[in-house]
């Protein structure tokens, strides 16, 4: 017992002598942290504002009575997510899908790196000739990856992104590679004009989500498996519905938009449409994953989640600091003092082109509001994270108000679009669409929480 006490005292002395805190309570010191503005986003300083109708409720909807609320600071995309940006997501999913199929087939054939052919695309836990698995990979493979899950036999196994995918059919390395690539395209009987067409139904992105609100309100005494109870994996087909250009308008010729709008470079900087609320949420999850993969590679701290804005955040950002303005530019009119329209919408009955655009325009067209946000009115309506309830303003909190009702499939859209009249462009006008619906006039932009609370619009004024 004396030896144990002596050893404890010696260890305590060594710990105290080897520390630079002099025995004081100084806290755990991490790396010096500074906020980093996300690429393509602008900081919207938090503050209080009067949410709701700033003008007469001409449509007599009675769903937006005024209410003073406060929102925290956040970053917001300066523009709507463009076709080019969403195509980056699609290309990433396509690349990962192909690599997954190559890795699975290599695993089934017992092929490993070093032998050429499809074996070069084997899972990273498969060591090549002359190589050994790391202790971590061996343990994880023996205890988890080799077992998989009930839903996915290959769950947890990491893809090998080092070898480049081969796109030229004449250079495919073996028949297994040909088999995988052929499975990604529609059969010849469903192709036309001599084009081999990608089967977009194969492009599915899976991500995990936790219902934090439900978990926080769970006051049951049985905490066994409580966390897993609120975790779910969501598979989302992510390719935009390009047929919306035809389905949304009866007796109208919009075939060129259906054929070219999403994939052609001519429309790369135009806002993506034909994306449902579920797909917009999947995009946010991927954007977070993609950024944090880079952060991990560089040894940096992870960033906050990218997400859709709440309805209150969207309206606050759209107002651009103006307390009771009708539109994002502050005034009650849709034209400036030279007679030019200030947004892309339908100014007159049947005259879509009076504002200089027939359909959508580039995401950075027209002047931004005072928060440097473009097209917060017109161009495309935008998904928010909030569920629509006509009476929600009566009961939501005055601090960061939101209605995260998972059972309510009606999701709030804001801002109006190229096919809407001016009423829907007003910063206080509310509208909604079903979460699984895609439209030719609905897009989205993302936000990211600002770390810290000292940056508020109230302090800046």
TrEMBL record:
SUPFAM superfamilies, sorted: C-type lectin-like
In Pfam terms, one family for this protein is: FGE-sulfatase
Give the source's domain of life in one word: Bacteria
- Span of domain Sulfatase-modifying factor enzyme-like: 40-97, 255-447
- Record keywords: Repressor included? no
Q: Which UniProt keywords apply?
A: Lipoprotein
Q: Which NCBIfam families does UniProt cross-reference here?
A: GldK (TIGR03525)
Q: Which PANTHER family match?
A: FORMYLGLYCINE-GENERATING ENZYME (PTHR23150:SF19), SULFATASE MODIFYING FACTOR 1, 2 (PTHR23150)
- This protein is called Gliding motility lipoprotein GldK
Record organism: Flavobacterium rhizosphaerae
Q: What is the lineage of its organism?
A: Bacteria, Pseudomonadati, Bacteroidota, Flavobacteriia, Flavobacteriales
């Amino acid at each position: 017992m004396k030896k144990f006490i002596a050893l404890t005292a010696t260890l305590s002395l060594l710990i105290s002598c080897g520390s630079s805190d002099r025995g004081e309570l100084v806290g755990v010191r991490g790396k010096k942290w500074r906020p980093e503005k996300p690429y393509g986003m602008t900081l919207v300083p938090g503050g209080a504002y009067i949410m709701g109708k700033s003008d007469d409720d001409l449509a007599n909807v009675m769903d937006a009575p005024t209410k003073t609320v406060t929102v925290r600071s956040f970053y917001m995309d300066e523009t709507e997510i463009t076709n080019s940006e969403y195509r980056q997501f699609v290309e990433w999913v396509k690349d990962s899908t192909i690599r997954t199929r190559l890795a699975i087939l290599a695993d089934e054939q017992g092929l490993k790196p070093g032998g050429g052919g499809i074996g070069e695309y084997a899972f990273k836990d498969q060591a090549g000739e002359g190589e050994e698995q790391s202790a971590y990979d061996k343990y994880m493979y023996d205890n988890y990856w080799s077992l998989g899950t009930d839903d996915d036999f290959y769950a947890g196994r990491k893809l090998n992104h080092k070898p480049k995918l081969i796109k030229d059919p004449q250079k495919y390395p073996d028949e297994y590679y040909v088999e995988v690539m052929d499975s990604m395209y529609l059969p010849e009987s469903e192709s036309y004009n001599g084009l081999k067409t990608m089967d977009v139904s194969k492009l599915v992105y899976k991500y995990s989500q936790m219902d934090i609100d439900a978990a926080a309100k769970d006051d049951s005494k049985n905490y066994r498996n409580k966390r897993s109870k609120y975790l779910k994996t969501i598979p989302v087909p992510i390719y935009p519905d390009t047929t919306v250009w035809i389905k949304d308008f009866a007796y109208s010729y919009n075939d060129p938009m259906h054929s070219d709008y999403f994939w052609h470079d001519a429309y790369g900087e135009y806002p993506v449409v034909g994306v449902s609320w579920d797909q917009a949420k999947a995009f946010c999850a991927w954007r977070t994953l993609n950024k944090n993969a880079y952060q991990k590679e560089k040894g940096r701290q992870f960033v906050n989640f990218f997400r859709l804005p709440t309805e209150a955040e969207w309206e606050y950002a759209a107002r651009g600091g103006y307390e009771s303005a009708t539109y994002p530019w502050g005034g009650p009119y849709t034209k400036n003092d030279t007679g030019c329209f200030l947004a892309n919408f339908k100014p007159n009955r049947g005259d879509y082109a009076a504002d200089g655009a027939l359909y959508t325009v580039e995401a950075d067209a027209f002047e931004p509001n005072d928060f440097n946000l473009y097209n917060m009115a017109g161009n495309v309506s935008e998904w928010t994270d909030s569920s629509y309830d006509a009476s929600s303003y009566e009961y939501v909190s005055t601090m960061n108000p939101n209605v995260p009702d998972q059972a309510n499939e009606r999701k709030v859209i804001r801002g109006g679009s190229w096919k809407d009249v001016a009423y829907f462009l007003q910063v206080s006008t509310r509208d909604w669409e079903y979460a699984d619906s895609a439209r030719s006039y609905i897009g989205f932009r993302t936000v990211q929480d600002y770390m810290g609370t000292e940056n508020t619009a109230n302090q800046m004024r």
